[in-house]
Amino acid sequence: MRHVGIIGVGRLGGALLKSLSDGSENRVCFIDRDIGLARQRSNEIKFASFESNLEDLAKKSCIIFLAVKPKDVQSTLEELGIYLRSEHLLISVCAGISSKQLREWSGNRCEVLRVMPNIACLVQRGILAVANDSNLSGERLKEVLEILSVMGNCYEIPEKLFDSFTALCASGPAFVFKFFESVEWAAEKIGFDARLSKQLSRSLLDSSSALSSNEWGTWKALIDQIATKGGCTEAGLHSLEADALSTIVERCFILTRDKSVDLGRVDKQS
Ligand SMILES: NC(=O)c1ccc[n+]([C@@H]2O[C@H](COP(=O)([O-])OP(=O)(O)OC[C@H]3O[C@@H](n4cnc5c(N)ncnc54)[C@H](OP(=O)(O)O)[C@@H]3O)[C@@H](O)[C@H]2O)c1
Fold this sequence. Notes:
The protein contains 12 helices and 8 strands. The protein has an 8-stranded mixed sheet, sandwiched between helices. By secondary structure, the protein is of the alpha/beta class. Helix 2 (35-44) links the parallel strand 2 (26-31) and strand 3 (49-50). The protein has helices at residues 11-21, 35-44, 54-60, 70-80, 99-105, 138-149, 162-170, 172-189, 194-214, 219-224, 232-242, 245-263; strands spanning 2-7, 26-31, 49-50, 63-66, 89-92, 111-116, 126-131, 152-157. It has 2 domains: 2-158, Rossmann fold (3-Layer(aba) Sandwich), CATH 3.40.50.720; 172-261, ProC C-terminal domain-like fold (Orthogonal Bundle). The protein is elongated and about 70 Å long. 53% of the residues lie in helices and 15% in strands. Helix 7 (162-170) crosses helix 12 and helix 8 crosses helix 9 (194-214). Residues 7-8, 10-13, 31-34, 37, 67-70, 72, 76, 93-95, 116-119, 170 line the site of NADP nicotinamide-adenine-dinucleotide phosphate.
């Protein structure tokens, strides 16, 4: 039985709480300064205990997940630091904040690891990055990967790629949903009513996703199964290329990555 604590059970911390509390391997406790939200989580997740202060959470956990907004990380760690012991492992899922900053703010009292999940860990289909250049012992890293594996696929990547991973995979689902929001909107423009536009846009995402996981070829090979030369799909693809879809996506990722870098800047923390 592992003793796991979660600080902050908002959107992402709530997803971690749910997936870590499923099954019997972990005993999970959590804390959130939004008492209404903490009560709601207590009602939703029967087998996790709500703690009222960081001292009790630290006493009851060996592995502590930090899931507060980047602006709250420093103050939270400065408060938590005095309760940390060398046996603890602190895992931060916070965008932009480096392991160096995490170690400094928590008083260098325990091992620290950066993990970047996406919110699909709520449905065990997450994509998670683990910093493979941390100094964690092989045994501890193995334990962490085992814990995270219930949430989805884990990729070990260098920490210097975390801001790019945040843009691509942590923010990524929001961009995919934004695209399909446009699909729903455009469906209405070409004649479908609102209800059918909503249904068809969802079905389009489902069927395309199922097809892509069935056929593990390149994206081009998948496109070529649908677009025939001189046909109607090709006309639509030309329109997307003329509007420079790839450049739009690239710019979106660069801005998101740079914002993640910016969130981690110490001079922006106050
Ligand atoms: N959302 C995502 O999909 C996603 C994906 C990857 C990574 N992340 C990272 O995950 C972190 C959390 O994001 P989120 O979207 O889940 O934020 P969120 O919904 O705002 O949740 C954060 C929660 O932590 C609480 N909190 C703040 N300081 C606290 C403290 N010292 N002790 C106890 N609770 C505290 C907040 O309370 P108040 O509301 O009262 O401040 C809030 O309820 C961020 O650093 C973000 O970069 C998020």
